[in-house]
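Sample pair:
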Amino acid sequence: MVGLIEDNTDYKRIIFSGHAIRQMFNRGLKKDDVLTVIRQGEVIIDYSDDKPYPSCLILGFVRNIPIHIVFAVDKQQQTGIVITAYIPDTKIWADDFKTRRSRK
């Protein structure tokens, strides 16, 4: 999955789900913020068995703000899909924003 994000060879366009657009608006995230994370971020969780398309969780920083993007790829249509975008909650994510805190 990392190769898909790093070199853009397996998709020709990126679309945003309605859910992603609503979440971005509610959280003050811009389209360019999300695209920056997709291009420059780090895949921290691979969901290769997701249906209907394999996806991953990407962490990136824009203006020193951590952002998580759930991103899927429809290889047949050569389309990247932003499923959601959010600022990780420090109650759920450790200080590195890569690791979930354990539930007690």
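The domain at 2-86 is CATH 3.30.2310 (YaeB-like fold).
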